Amino acid sequence: MVQKQDLFPPVNMFGNLYFVGTKPASTHVVDTGEGLIVFDTGYQHSLYVVIDGIYRMGLKLADVRYIFLTHGHIDHLGGARALRDLTGAKICLGAEDRQYANGELDLSYAKELGMSFKETFEPDILLKDGDEITLGNTTVRAVATPGHTPGAMSFFFDVTDGKETFRAGLHGGMGINTMCKAFLDKYNLPYSLREDFVKSMHRLNEEKVDIFLGNHMQHNKTESKAKLLQEGNKYAYVDATEWQPYNLWCIENLNAMIARENAESN
Questions:
Q1: Contact 21, 56 (CB under 8 A)
Q2: How many separate domains does the chain show?
């Protein structure tokens, strides 16, 4: 069950871009004019909150055509199977995370969160680096950014209100929790994922992004920006100076963890 503290009202971030929930894991929607694209679904137990958010923004669930998943963890793909069952939408996931989604590998991070992942599924589209999918006025470009998971994908697309257009960027996965020594050793995962992560952040740093979208609300300050929007700042979520510094901070965060691990082992 979703707790009251996990709820946050849906937000029309800019033009055809929406945040529809929740505090523990973000879900974004783009209205392409010919259907909706959903980015991440959150947990399976909070999908009803996402659906409610879609309706509260004046959108229709039946219009969902694609579900893009940033990576194969339960807090981002937990509701994907149910949402596909409800809408007939196609699920898009990085190819290297396929076994996370279909349950062949027990790496959905469910156990670490005290949960079980029973809503396994086969993705409809296995994304590779550079893949582009177009629906209506929106083309989504997928950029492979492994590290947090092997198949983490970042997504880039234009957002418009009909008069102005801005470039949105959604990180594939910034958490270093799955790159700590204990986690890698537990699941026999390669330490090279750390190197992959650093390369991914440097690569993302080359992208031009006006609207920074995060996997979780705190990454891109969704809540504080919503207040600015309510106060009349139409461009509350538009800030071209946020993207690059956050990528560099991700690298610093990983390096600090590695330094702590090395100090503890000495």
A1: no
A2: 1
Q: Are 157 and 141 in contact (CB under 8 A)?
A: yes
Amino acid at 246: Y
Q: Tell me how far apart the alpha carbons of residues 182 and 177 are, in angstroms, rounded to a whole number.
A: 9
Burial (CB count within 10 angstroms: exposed 0-12, middle 13-18, buried 19+), residue 197: buried
- Burial state string for 68-89 with b = 16 or more CB within 10 A and e = fewer than 16: bbbbbbbbbbbbbbbbbeebeb
d(C-alpha 135, C-alpha 237), whole Å: 23
- CATH of residue 10: 3.60.15.10
Q: Could you tell me the residue range of the domain that residue 184 belongs to?
A: 4-265
CA distance 220 to 4: 21
* pLDDT tens profile 110-147: 999 999 999 999 999 999 999 999 999 999 999 999 99
Checking if the pLDDT of 149 tops 90, the result is yes
Of 95, 115, 86, the closest CA to residue 25 belongs to 115
